[in-house]
Structure formats: structure tokens, C-alpha cells
């Protein structure tokens, strides 16, 4: 089953000095009772025909949110969104690509999204889900951020009325044509080769309302569309696309700028109310994309009412966001180099019989045995560490890297051991394991039983050295320390994938760069590693 979630278009922005008048931002909320469900037989077939023989999903990592709760010290992971603005052939009809005022509005909305994700408040409403007054049990930072790619497309359906949608019939008009799902009109953007991988968020407008507002008519009597829609991820069809649809964002902007200000409200306040959706509705939407449901408490981000604080997410729900970032289709939208630098510690016998992506290292310790029987996707910079007297078994499973090119392997320490059982398919060319003085090289084939144990250690010949970038953040220079590895070259990209700098020196001069996060790709000759760096 796949549910399509509808939620409130605009929410209260309590952070502003003056709250908007009630009749300005009140919008219809489609509650959980109006969820649209349908059976997707392809999802069921994919579950049945999974390529891994032992994906029974009995592991606690399949169902327990508490195992995924982020630590405040772990690195941030990034999810990719595509904001797709549909326009007329002359570029109008929506926010405009070359309009600085419009760009700054979206800069602020995106910044507000990331602010809220990094600033989770303790609720004042004691009825909130998983409320705990003890500050020590509160997660103040989700350690998730968004990277937004803005896309402009000339499309006759910039005017969503051409889809056959009839506003007076409500969200389910014309067989739910505007709701992301099996009948979604804008699904043709799912496989557009010019759009990067990410959650596709489409913005279109009521063309009749736009024409009236563009002519300065604030009394057309045409109502704005008061809803927006998203869909939950799938645990079964891991290639399922994730979409959102936001109607009338630009007509709302025109109305607030040209009509609301006529009521005596200064534009600085009105603009603040508008970009405040980044704190509330857009994070609410992202919550649905990560499998969060509506909540009733006044402070909750997932409250569907407009006039609440929207600043709380429970510890359990943040764990759930990470769990679905691991076991569901939404995992495909996290950046390849998302890596927490944290460790999943296995200190009792476990079987991992699930298909999941993790964002950390794995460490088997305390004499425990870890058996992998399904699929595990790991960060390129991560490794599995098998500690003294501990055991790692791969049986009919697979380990792959998020970038499908690089991985730091399986390290066996002391009297630990690795056993690869027959009929295991290692389907990549970068898999390897190593002890203190021997290496199991990369291979790509079904394998017979391979055992690897540490003999008397002479020296640690780790194949890959973790590069160090310091200081990070920096405002003048980054230094690149590759240890014993030879630095061949490096490239610095912005979060839109544009090449900013490249060189081969161990120092990166960022004095002329804007304050932002960047991706530093370091070439060591035999492999490449990427790090998120910040200029402040």
C-alpha cells in the first residue's frame, strides 16, 4: 500500500515580530482521514522477487527507530531536492530564473528549512508525541540538511488548469491528477535526463489567477489553491520516485506583495511571513517524504494546522527519519558522500537480513558474531571493523558503496575473523578485506567459502588512509593531509555540482569564495574521496 499525504499549504511563522492576520494565511488542511490509498502491485512483486535470498527483515534495524537516533557530534547527512519552476515561454508565470528578488526569496526559504532541521525545540504542549521534559532526552538537531537544485522548465502546464484540474472540486479533482502518485500529471519529470537525482518538487500556478494578479487586480474573486501534496516512500520498491506538488506558490507571493501590503502591512513583515514557510510547511513536507505522519500537538512540525509553532519533532520520529533514509526508496536521494563518521556497534550476536543503506562505520566487538544475508550499502569512506575475538559472516548477501566506486573495506583486528559463505555474490570491483599483514583483494563473482583471519601481526598495512581536511570550517585556507598517500589533485564543487576550483597543491585558498558548504573531491591516484567543507 502507498499512501498519498496531503498537508497544509501555509503554516504560522511564530518567529516573526508580528504574526500575520488570521484571514491571510488560513488554508484548508486535508487531514489523515482523507489520505488516498491504492495498491501498487509492482511494489509487491519487487518485495517477492528481491535479488537477495535472505531478506527476511527480522533484524531490529528494520523496525526500531531508537537504533537510528543521531548523536549531536555526528556529521550531517544531506538530502537532495529539485525545486522545479514551470514557466511560460518568456520565463514568466512563476518565480523567474534571472530575477534576483525571486532568488533571494528562495534562498531564505531554503535557509529556513535548514535552520529548523538544525534547531528542534522542546515543546510547550505536554500532549506532544513522545513528550519528555528532560532536556537530556531531547534531540536538538536532526543532523539532516537539504541541498536544493533549482530548475526552470518551459511547460504549458505552468498553468495547472490545463491538466483538467477543477479548483472547485478540491484536491481529488480529475482522478487526483495533481496528487503525486499513480495518476500524477507531472510524472514526466521523474526521468527527465536534464534534472539531477533528487525529490522532484514541482511549482505550478492557476493561470487565470496569475493573469489577474499580474495586472494588479486584487479583487478577482479567484481563490488560491490551499493545499499541497507529497507521497510516502516505499519499503518494497526501492527505486520508487518521490515527488511533491505545490500549487499557487507564486500567485500567493504576488498577492502578498501587491495586495496584502495595501492593507497597511510593511513589505518587510509580509515577506517574512511568506518565507517563514521554510520553517514550517516545507519541513512538514520533508517529514512526509521521510514517513512522518500528522501529529495533533500544537508545537509539532507535523501538525497540519496553520496557526501552531511547528518547531518540535520527537526523538523517536527523528530516529524514524533516519530509519526510512536507510530502508526505503527515499535513501536514493541522500548524497553519495553522506557519512556521519559514527559507528554502528554490534556487541551481541546479530543477523542483518535487511536491504539497507547506512551512513556510518560498522564495528563488531565483544566476541559477537554479525551475519549479513542481504544487502548493505555503506559510505565510500566507511569500513567494517571486526575486533578481537569477534566474527563477521557474509552469506548470500552483498556489500556495496554509495558511490559504487570506492570503499575502505573490512578490517580484521587481533583474533577476529571474516567468513564469506558459498553463493555469495560480491557485485563490485572495490570489495576488499585486510588484516595486519594480508589483503583479500577486490573481486566480482559468486565465491566459494573464503575465510580470513589475522596471523601474527607485523605492521598495519591499511590500504586507504582517511584524509584530513583542516581547519573545517575555514575562512582563508583548507589544508589537505593525505598521510602516506600521494595527493594527485583536488577539485572543489558547490552544492549544485558546479566546479569552483581545482589544483594539485595540499592547500585550498577559499578567501574569495562565498560563505557556504562545498564538496572537496580529492584524487589519490588509485581512488577518490569526497568531503563536505564549509567556508565561513
TrEMBL record:
Keyword annotations: Signal
Keyword Signal: yes
Signal peptide: 1-17
Every Secretion system C-terminal sorting domain range: 469-533
One Pfam family hit: Por_Secre_tail
UniProt entry tagged with the keyword Protease: no
Protein name: Putative secreted protein (Por secretion system target)
Lineage: Bacteria, Pseudomonadati, Bacteroidota, Flavobacteriia, Flavobacteriales
Amino acid at each position: 500500500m502507498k499512501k498519498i499525504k496531503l498537508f497544509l499549504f501555509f503554516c504560522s511563522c511564530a518567529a516573526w515580530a508580528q504574526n500575520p492576520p488570521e484571514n491571510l494565511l488560513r488554508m484548508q488542511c486535508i487531514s489523515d482521514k482523507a489520505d488516498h490509498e491504492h495498491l501498487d502491485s509492482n511494489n509487491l512483486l519487487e518485495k517477492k522477487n528481491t535479488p537477495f535470498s535472505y531478506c527476511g527483515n527480522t533484524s531490529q534495524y528494520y523496525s526500531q527507530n531508537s537504533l537510528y537516533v543521531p548523536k549531536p557530534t555526528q556529521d550531517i547527512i544531506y538530502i537532495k531536492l529539485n525545486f522545479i519552476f514551470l514557466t511560460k515561454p518568456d520565463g514568466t508565470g512563476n518565480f523567474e530564473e534571472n530575477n534576483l528578488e525571486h532568488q533571494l526569496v528562495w534562498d531564505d526559504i531554503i535557509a529556513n528549512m535548514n535552520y529548523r532541521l538544525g534547531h528542534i525545540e522542546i515543546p510547550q504542549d505536554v500532549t506532544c508525541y513522545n513528550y519528555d521534559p528532560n532536556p537530556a532526552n531531547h534531540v536538538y538537531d536532526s543532523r539532516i540538511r537539504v541541498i536544493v537544485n533549482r530548475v526552470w522548465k518551459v511547460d504549458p502546464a505552468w498553468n495547472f488548469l490545463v491538466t483538467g484540474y477543477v479548483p472547485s472540486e478540491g484536491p481529488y479533482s480529475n482522478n487526483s491528477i495533481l496528487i503525486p502518485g499513480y495518476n500524477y500529471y507531472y510524472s514526466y519529470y521523474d526521468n527527465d535526463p536534464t534534472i539531477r537525482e533528487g525529490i522532484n518538487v514541482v511549482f505550478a500556478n492557476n493561470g487565470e489567477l496569475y493573469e489577474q494578479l499580474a495586472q494588479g487586480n486584487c479583487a478577482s474573486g479567484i481563490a488560491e489553491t490551499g493545499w499541497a501534496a507529497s507521497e510516502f516512500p516505499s519499503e518494497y520498491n526501492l527505486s520508487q520516485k518521490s515527488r511533491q506538488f505545490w500549487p499557487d506558490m507564486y500567485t500567493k507571493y504576488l498577492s502578498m506583495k501587491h495586495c496584502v501590503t495595501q492593507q497597511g502591512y510593511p513589505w518587510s513583515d509580509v515577506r517574512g511571513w511568506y518565507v517563514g514557510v521554510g520553517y514550517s510547511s516545507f519541513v512538514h513536507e520533508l517529514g512526509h517524504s521521510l514517513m512522518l505522519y500528522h501529529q495533533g500537538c500544537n508545537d509539532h512540525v507535523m501538525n497540519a494546522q496553520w496557526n501552531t509553532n511547528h518547531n518540535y519533532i520527537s526523538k523517536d520520529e527523528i530516529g524514524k527519519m533516519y530509519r526510512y533514509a536507510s530502508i526505503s526508496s527515499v535513501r536514493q536521494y541522500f548524497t553519495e558522500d553522506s557519512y556521519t563518521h559514527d559507528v554502528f556497534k554490534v556487541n551481541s550476536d546479530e543477523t542483518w537480513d535487511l536491504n539497507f543503506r547506512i551512513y556510518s562505520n560498522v564495528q563488531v566487538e565483544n566476541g559477537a558474531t554479525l551475519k549479513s544475508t542481504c544487502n548493505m550499502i555503506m559510505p565510500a569512506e566507511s569500513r567494517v571493523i571486526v575486533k578481537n575475538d569477534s566474527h563477521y559472516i557474509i552469506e548470500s548477501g552483498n556489500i556495496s558503496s554509495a558511490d559504487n566506486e570506492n570503499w575502505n573495506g573490512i578490517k580484521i583486528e587481533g583474533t577476529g575473523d571474516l567468513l564469506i559463505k558459498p553463493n555469495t555474490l560480491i557485485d563490485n570491483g572495490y570489495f576488499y578485506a585486510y588484516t595486519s599483514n594480508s589483503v583479500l583483494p577486490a573481486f566480482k563473482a559468486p565465491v566459494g567459502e573464503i575465510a580470513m583471519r589475522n596471523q601474527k601481526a607485523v605492521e598495519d598495512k591499511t590500504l586507504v588512509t582517511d584524509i584530513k581536511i583542516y581547519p573545517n570550517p575555514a575562512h582563508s585556507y583548507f589544508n589537505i593531509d593525505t598521510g602516506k598517500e600521494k595527493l594527485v589533485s583536488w577539485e572543489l564543487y558547490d552544492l549544485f555540482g558546479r566546479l569552483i576550483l581545482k589544483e594539485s597543491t595540499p592547500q585550498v585558498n577559499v578567501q574569495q569564495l562565498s560563505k557556504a558548504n562545498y564538496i572537496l573531491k580529492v584524487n589519490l591516484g588509485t581512488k577518490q574521496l569526497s568531503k563536505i567543507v564549509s567556508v565561513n
